[in-house]
Amino acid sequence: MSLVAHELRLLSRQRLTIVALALLTLVTVAALAAGMTEVARQRAAIADIAAAQAEDIDAIAAWVDKSKDAGSAAYYSFHPTWDAPAPLAFATLGMRDVSPYILRVRALGLEAQIYDGDTFNPELALPGRFDFAFVLVFLAPLFVIALFHDLVAGEREAGRARALDALPKGGRALWRRRTLLRLGLLWLVLAAPFACAALSEGVAIVVIAIVLALIAAYLLFWIALAALVGRLRWSSVANAATLAAAWMVLVLIVPTLANVAINQAIPVNQGAEIALAQREAVNRAWDIPREDTMRRFYANHPQWGDSAPLGTEFHYKWYFAFHQNGDESVSDQVRDYRGGLERRAAAGRALGWALPSVGVQALLTRLADSDLTGQLAYQDCIRDFHARLRTFYYGYLFHDRMFGTTDFASAPKFEHTPCTHKRIRATGAASLNLSAKTALDPPDLAQVDGVADQQRVASALNDYRQPARRRAARYRQIEPFFGTFNWAVRQNSAVGADNFDGRPGRAAHMHLQSDRAAGR
Amino acid sequence: MSVTRLIARDELRLMMRNRVAVIAFVLLALLTLVAVASSWSHQRGIAELRARHAQAADAAFDAQPDRHPHRVVHYGTFIFRPLGPLAAFDPGVDAFTGNSMFLEGHRQNSANFGDARQSSLLVRFGQLTPAFVLQVVAPLLLIFLGYGALSREIERGTLRLLMLQGASRGQVVGGKLLALGIVALLAGMPAMVGFVLIAGKPGALALPMLAIASGYFLYLALWTIAIILVSALVRRSRDALLTLVALWTFAVVLVPRVAPDVASAAVPLQDRLQTDVAIARDLRKLGDSHNPDDPHFAKFRQSVLDRYGVSRVEDLPVNYKGVLGIEGERLTSSLFDRYSRESYAAQTRQNALVGVAGLISPAIAIRSLSMAAAGTDFAGHRRFLEQAEAYRYGLVQRLNKLQADDVRYADDIAEDAGADRRKRVAADNWTEQPDFTFTAPSGTALARGAVPGLAIILSWLAAAAVLLLMATRRLGVRR
């Protein structure tokens, strides 16, 4: 029998080891299941948007069609945006339970809408989620301690250490063998369930490989720490106590201390000030001459300057002009606020180079795009979409065009914005881009015209489909082995356009069909 | 000196000789001090910031020029959630619930700019507060100090020596318990001193403070008894340590994370998009204000005309648009209330499920006790949301009434150049509107919220004490 098999047999006789490995397996599987359930629920919520939105917008279209007033349509129409979970989100829910992943916006001032939150129970969010990242960062080290605290000390206390050193293939080789065996078993217990779950969720192979390497590296760190403590030649009890204390300091105490330090060092208080200032600027427009508002708006958006001058009665183009002016008046504060948030996120990630627990969490949330950077990227997509919405409605408002039921169907859709496609591609292919491009720069207006045209939609969908087709090919190879999971995931994402198996969802089909039916 | 006290003194001496234990104890005291200081300064900074913003918002509201009342309904007002005095000890859900809310007509907004959405990933590792130190760190320190109390004696055979000397089992266990209890008291002392300093302002609520103090006292007593119990049951020290660390991980780290997941899966919450769409749908059924032929509003118009005994809207002594605004706001607010009541009920059910998990983890019980007494749990947040909604409704309806009484209907529907000037009401109306003041809950209400957690910890304590009595009787018996 090989030496490794022999060591395995010896290991199987230690009750503590068997119990620890079994417990870790149980907890890992439970955490993965919990994460997958939550992500499926979020995908289902996103899939339910289409029906609710259709009902809502049809009711508005019904009464706007009587007056054909573009301003009323722009004022009352809410447009949904959403942040679909990345394939790896089942392993690290990150901020997805406290930050909104669905947000409805309308063409009014965005700064008053973009910071809104969704409904969630704060008491449930307080302790944190039970997901794979929690098991890896918090619990795996305890199991490492359970298996390694008495590796050498236990033999020494039993009086066998000298004998083991004297054996042929003993001494250092023996300890190496035993260490590698335990490391291998721990890694297997964590990695195998994760790999199964990740393959069924459609995570890219590169990402899976990175996470598996990360698991091994994190376990190695704790094993190295255990070896260091072992060199002090204390009793196994003292080893266990010291390692548990080290765990508490590295995983529980230092991150919370660092959080206090970072938040003190980088104050971010502009949020309420932005809201107050934007409201003041918007409402002030009612008290200043209307021509001032229009002049300021045309200065920043000259392409609409050829519009007819205002009469004495109320006109919605003036209303939307001062909302946009209000947004622009707080753009500096918004930039500062966002800069502060990005600096805080960067400081947290920087700590990850010093503290492995923080580093693992930072890397996992970045791969799953569920950290603050991901939230800011989602807000960028909302800004991009809002700009397209405004351009769409301005086309009607500033040129005094009628807005009927068919025009409702041609309004920009969130799933067709290039920002959304880029994010799906980026998170699907494990972009490690740690800084999100800010969309506070004006969008490329050459790409956007007032009317959705089939060519643009088709080309955007094609952009989206290409990498998805490659993923779908790989997916189909492994599909037969993961039938149930696949079915569940696809059922949940079937209606949305952001499918992860390359098929555009039903919603995208509907829009293409409606465009074709409208003869465009 | 009695036997028990002798044994306790000996155990304490042994602990002091353990240098690692002393260092750990000192570090815990330091950590508590840092937690108290940072928590106190953080809460003070927050309170100052919110007070400043609230003042700015109120000043902006009062400084409005002459405006049409409906414009002021959309101008709205910003309110900022104040913190109770005990929030510095246990901020609870404060980081997760937003700091400021925008109140306006026709809409119910969320509370925004909470710490959790503005911080780095480190915020989800936990918050450094005295409550955290007492709930999570102190039990682990007690475990390190006390795991070997009885198992060491059994291992080395000194238990038999003690009993030969005439010490009874009860006295041995009592002595160890006394020693660890003194250490627990000393460990909790810095946090409690900090608590009294933070919260001991004049007029601070005595009953919740008493609830918190007794709750943590019982919690640490529970851990003391549990540690001695495991030490008595397990023969080897190493197994005692591993068992206790496993118990701690299960009760303090694992169950508080698993229970919320189970609760949120069992009781789903409707997200905001679905709620808004449902409210819009119900509103259309109740009365579609956009539809001129809507039956509800037609009946309403007729009832207003009948009340004033006129036949045309233009002849009414009040502005019909203002009256219509009052009715519309009443309808929408009744729907907001219904849906938010359902949402609160769902969240209360979720929290009750988590509370049931307190039966297997006293850490959940102490956390809910601590948050409830500090007023920083979900019930506390709900209190604020309900008061905010009541204030919003009152303000909007007062403004609508202003529109009904002080703006003439003919001016309101006019579209000529001077109509805008005529529609406005004087600016001193805005200063007459009362500012939002949060009515803090009474001490009794807060203490009542802490009772379930206290009851669970007491029952845990009783169960542990009974088990310890049983284990004492069988101490040292060869198995």
Features:
heterodimer, A: 520 residues, mainly alpha, 22 helices, 2 strands, elongated, disordered C terminus, B: 479 residues, 3-stranded antiparallel β-sheet, 19 helices, 2% strand
Most residues in contact, chain pair and counts: A-B, 99 and 100 residues
Placed side by side, the strands forming the largest sheet of chain B appear as 1-2-3
What is the ordering of alpha helices and beta strands of chain A? HHHHEEHHHHHHHHHHHHHHHHHH
In helices, the fraction of residues of chain A equals 55-70%
Averaging pLDDT over every residue of chain B, what do you get?
Answer: 91
Radius of gyration of chain A over all CA atoms, rounded: 28 Å
Oligomeric state of the chains present here: heterodimer
Main β-sheet, spatial strand arrangement of chain A: 1-2
Main beta sheet strand tally, sense and closure of chain A: 2 strands, antiparallel
Number of strands of chain B: 3
Assess the beta-strand content of chain B as a share of residues: under 5%
* Low-pLDDT ranges of chain B: none
In terms of DSSP E residues, the strand content of chain A is under 5%
Concise structural overview:
Chain A has 520 residues and is an all-alpha fold.
Notes on the protein architecture:
The complex is a heterodimer of chains A (520) and B (479). Chain A has 520 residues and is mostly helical. Chain A has 22 helices and two strands. Chain A has helices spanning 3-12, 15-47, 49-67, 70-76, 122-125, 132-148, 153-158, 161-166, 172-201, 205-230, 236-265, 270-284, 290-300, 316-329, 331-354, 356-367, 372-397, 405-409, 418-428, 454-478, 483-493, 506-517; strands spanning 79-82, 102-105. A two-stranded antiparallel ribbon of chain A has the order 1-2. In chain A, α11 packs antiparallel against α15 (331-354). Residues 429-458 and 477-520 of chain A have low confidence and may be disordered. Chain B has 479 residues and is mainly α. Chain B is 72% helix and 2% strand. Chain B contains 19 helices and three strands. Chain B has helices at 3-17, 19-62, 69-75, 115-118, 130-146, 151-156, 158-164, 169-199, 206-233, 237-266, 272-286, 295-308, 320-357, 362-374, 378-406, 409-413, 419-422, 428-432, 443-473, and strands at 77-80, 100-103, 111-112. In chain B, strands 1-2-3 form a three-stranded antiparallel beta sheet. In chain B, α1 (3-17) packs across α8 (169-199), α2 runs antiparallel to α5 and α5 runs antiparallel to α10 (237-266). Chain B is elongated and about 105 Å long. The chains are: A mainly alpha (520), B mainly alpha (479).
